[in-house]
Predict the 3D structure of the following.
Amino acid sequence: MKDRKTKIALGIILILLVIQVFSIDKTNPNVDPNLDMFKTVKMPVDVEALLKNSCVDCHSNETTYPWYTNIEPVSWWVKGHINRGRQTFNISEWQSYDASKKNHKINDCMEVIEKKWMPMGIYTWLHPKAKLSDAERKRLIVFFESLRK
């Protein structure tokens, strides 16, 4: 019995070591300043700071990959979140959206901020400065409301 447990443990360790070879691509896509929300939309300094502290790592092409993205398979999970975040709403590509899509994104942003779905709890646990107070959430909602056409 002990020999079997040892073999299983060694097998798991071997698998974990081997998968370290399959790391994620941490190259960020280029940011076109003509499309970037921070460069093309007038926004108050406090709103920009909130977006940068709480949103850009998953919702822009300016992701800063933390130390734990050097560990597989954690990095795969994080990269999946980043890919979905960019696909859902990408600050770096704001001006590429047509008016209808912008309004849809605005509504989505307001909803996930109001319902406290974003930033995600696991993200704020690892990045406590990204946590939004109720007042900060309201500030972001008011800002997004102001973008409606």
The mean pLDDT is 94. Helices lie at 2-19, 37-40, 45-54, 56-59, 74-88, 99-114, 121-126, 134-146. The radius of gyration is 19 Å.
